[in-house]
Amino acid sequence: MANIENGNLTRRTLLKAGTAMTAVPFLGIAAPSVLAQAPAKSPTKVLDFMTNADVAKAEQEGQLVFYCHENEAGTAGIMEGFRKDFPKINTSYVRAQTGALYNKILSERSAGRFDVDVIQLSDLSPAFDFQKKGGYEHYVSPESSAYKKDHLSAPNGYFFWTGVDPAGIAYNSEKLTGAPPKGWKDILDPRWKGKISCKISASGLQFVQWYTLRKIYGDGFWKEFAKLQPHAFDSRVQLFDRLSKGDDMITAIGEYPAYILFKSRGAKVEFVAPPDGLVATPLVVGAVNKAPHPEAAKLFVDWAMSKRGQAWYQTNPNLYYGSVRTDAPPMPTGVKLSDFKLLYPSDWDEYAAQSATFLKEWNGMLGL
Question: Who's near 9: CB < 8 A, 6+ residues apart?
């Protein structure tokens, strides 16, 4: 069983942290261009994937510390899959929404604390910032050849897309009155007032939804949404739990993985894929610079990139994330991620620059 560290992040801290990039210097971290490069070596096969890590040393290190945006069950699930394959390596983690998690690691590293081996974020904006600050260790996995260039850092070796979290609209089929929603504009219907949910500003997916729908429908879209007095929560599990109980009639950000999970449990929830597409955010994984367990960090990256690790991410009930690996099999529902029309920001640099505006507007809507 993995050891668990909760990180002592309160709900109010999560709500206020958002996705802002804290202006904190990185002490003792080299810029990415001058990171030491390890001599080239031939990868070795472990289980059914290739790695450049020294597995014996990783097992001697005996520990992997993981920072992750995922909910509690999902984060524990990722560690369970890795620990199952490498039982000699104990695992511990800290989980929080991406904005709060990223601010936490910046603050720790500014104070000279280098406690983390691998970090997973749900937003490319802080991932770009972390790479720029030299936060990632440069490690080119032998498994990276199975990924398209768009799903790897530039240059390759800092982070990769370990999956994609797509979201549409979800509603309670028993509590719904009138016609069900069909497209994104339908979430503005006045009948949802006080009965609709969304996520807090620390969510990378919420940032993507705000940005992409604003691009399509204009600046006034979210002002109209604010009039509905939405309930905001940290976790997709909270959103669907409330939806299944009827506490909310509809959620404006119904994550497909959560829908699969709750539908399999018999919840009276339905999923809507708007014609304009599902908003989607990549889940970004990378080994951290000055990691206390560097070989374990490399081994985890290779495992997560491999067909073995991707199968775990894509089929674990607490994850169900679509894989972008070029040879990925269908998801548990029988569809592939490529079967969906997905809405990503067309300009990731412009997207990242909108972080402060998003935080101000979203937290203002929530009264923070």
Answer: 94, 96, 100, 104
- Reported as a single tens digit per residue, the pLDDT across 15-55 is 444 444 444 444 334 444 333 444 557 899 999 999 999 99
pLDDT at 12 over 90: no
Angle between helix 256-264 and helix 236-245 axes, rounded to 10 deg: 50
Residues 6+ apart with CB under 8 A from 145: none
- Rounded alpha-carbon distances, angstroms, from residue 192 to 137, 172, 230, 235: 46, 12, 9, 20
Is 91:2 a contact under the CB 8 Å cutoff? yes
Nearest to 162 by CA among 152, 149, 175, 176: 152
Pairing of strands 342-343, 278-287: parallel
Packed helices 98-110 and 124-132: angle between N→C axes, nearest 10 degrees: 20
